[in-house]
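R.M. (postdoc): so does anyone remember the format we settled on? I'll just put the structure tokens first.
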């Protein structure tokens, strides 16, 4: 993870932005979560390790990290935003349970998945592809609670 954090430290430095402990913690968390996360959920998760963190700190840093292209904001139809780290990884595939939050990332299979879609991409240069299927895992489905 230190190599990845150094990548973002250098990216921030190139933009004239310092990597503060709060920004480093946000970047680390986004690298670990793999799937987009709301600012509220990020705040809740960060508050466990950093009890003095505020929602304003999280929101301010997310906005700054977005401005320097370290974080990408994904706006949902309901008006809520989720955030993810801008990685060097071109393709991302995964599934996520909307109740318990368990996620499975299939990105390691990117070459195989891209090969299956090669005909669709003939003459096209993809810059980013992200697919997350949200639903209920087997345990949550058995309890029938959302």
């Amino acid at each position: 993870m230190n190599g990845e954090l150094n990548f973002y430290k250098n990216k921030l430095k190139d933009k004239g932005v310092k990597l503060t402990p709060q920004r480093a913690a946000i970047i680390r968390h986004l690298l670990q979560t793999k799937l987009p996360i709301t600012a509220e959920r990020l705040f809740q998760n960060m508050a466990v390790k950093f009890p003095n963190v505020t929602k304003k700190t999280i929101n301010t840093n997310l906005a700054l990290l977005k401005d320097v292209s370290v974080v990408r904001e994904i706006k949902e139809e309901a008006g809520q935003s989720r955030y993810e780290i801008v990685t060097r990884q071109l393709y991302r595939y995964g599934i996520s349970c909307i109740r318990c939050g368990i996620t499975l990332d299939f990105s390691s299979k990117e070459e195989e998945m891209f090969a299956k879609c090669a005909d669709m991409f003939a003459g096209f240069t993809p810059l980013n592809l992200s697919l997350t299927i949200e639903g209920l895992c087997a345990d949550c489905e058995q309890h029938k609670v959302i």
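R.M.: ...and that's the designed sequence above, right after the tokens. Also worth knowing: The first strand starts at residue 37 and ends at 38. The chain has a mean pLDDT of 79.
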